[in-house]
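Q: Two folds, back to back.
A: First:
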Amino acid sequence: MSARGDARRRGRRDEGRLSPEAFLGSLQLADSFFPSGGYTLSHGLESYAEAGLLDAGSLPAIAAGLIRASVGPSDAVALALVCRAAATGNLDVIAEIDRRLTAVKLAR
């Protein structure tokens, strides 16, 4: 596959801009007003900013921590399990995964 195809598969375009899919995914993580479900939160970024702990240099480490501690263990695992259940058409399992993931999210 070409370098351009590899970049698109990873969610990025070779020009350095996000693909539409990656952009929408980043909105879900970064924008508390993005309508992505039954919870909204800033992942603590406002608190870090108010405490003077957030700047361009610290944001990558904070984002990486969020992915390792929250997105990876919950959302990414749920997504993988849903894909596996969808491949077999098991809608009951998909509904249960959704119920459990919703249960660990903060309410509005």
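A: Second:
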Amino acid sequence: ELKTIADQVSEEGGELIMTLAERLKEQGRQEVMTLAERLMEKGMEKGIEKGIEKNRREMAKRLLRMGISPEQVAEASELPLKEILEIKREIES
């Protein structure tokens, strides 16, 4: 009878271990997916920010070419005056 109890405990323990292993595997998979999603989201945000920055610079170039003062261009584009002056030097050279 002791052997039967030991076999039963061993069998139930094995099932418990397998169940725990499956749960850990699924949890790990979910954590990896969550991490991948966060990385993708950050990449998209960074790309959007770069696009916005590029558009601001292009707008600044157009305004400067139209003869608008660097101070007004800085205000309109929300770029620092220093950057506007650099852009102005670029388009004048």
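Q: And?
A: The first helix runs from residue 2 to 65.
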